[in-house]
Target: Type I glyceraldehyde-3-phosphate dehydrogenase
Amino acid sequence: MRIAINGFGRIGRIFLRNIINRPGIEVVAINDLTDTETLAHLFKYDSVHRGFKGEVHFDSSNLYINGKAIKVLAESDPLALPWKGLHIDLVIESTGKFTSKEGAQKHLTAGAKQVVISAPSTGKSVPTVVLAVNDSEVDLSSPILSNASCTTNNVAAMVKILDENWGIIDGYITTVHSMTGDQNLHDAPHKDLRRARAASASIIPTTTGAAKAITAIFPHLDGHLGGAGIRVPVLNGSLTDFTCSLKGQPTVEEINIAFKNAADGPMKNVLEYTNDPIVSTDILDNTHSCIFDAQLTSIVGGLVKVVGWYDNEMGYSSRLADLVEKIAQFKSI
Model:
């Protein structure tokens, strides 16, 4: 399968690290408005995930990763991209700008056969895939798919287990999330006045689209989930606090057993179970979507609280690579 990456930012670069050695998949092009020298440097060196364990070189129009040439383009309009001539089977849309069906469609018009958006898609017409949660219910041959968000992948695992075992009545998602490039280094104008403030200086309440995205996966919970985000001054590593009321009345032990069984069984490689008193640095470079913290499970009256950690870059990019690999296997059948 021939892959192109549109947007070589945090997710695009970590995705490439994850996909580069997977058999049957070839990354042949990257589209980004930045010069090749800068792209090569940012791929080779990373402040969170450290140096790439391989060779990285560049010339004026290519990156060379472990000796393999990847063509670098610099087109702001996807319609101008040479996907047809490059025989692109699938585009990873990771700019954050073309998340609608109409935006992603431009890659198909340019000649690509399929697009996976590395973000929640605006509108309801693009199927959302969360591996180990709803991938068996989604047509992987759909021309445009969304891999949801890092937070959605994290909390969807917890929602699925609680809902299937005891039935969720109502719930609230609070993501305590590391700072991202959408925030400001110093106080400066931003459409979200809280995100306008210096990212490393404050705890910053903001929004999350996870609650809305979750209802695309669990439509029967539409109107029963809410959510908020809290940005904290760490480079990477996040957690989701999910508090809910259930139809059943489990004990803390029963909840933890259900998560342990899922981590050892159907959600293996997506969900990890820990009973250790971990902190955010302990989950950096962890490829799971959700690291369930059994020590933090609690029940008060009719309210249940569970907590899942996640490396919001590596965990999400790993699922993105897994999805591409699953699509490639599906198409080879």
Q: What stands out?
A: Residues 116 and 145 are 5 Å apart (CA to CA). The helical segments are 10-19, 36-44, 101-109, 150-166, 210-217, 252-264, 314-332. The radius of gyration is 20 Å. The chain has two domains: 2-126, 150-312.
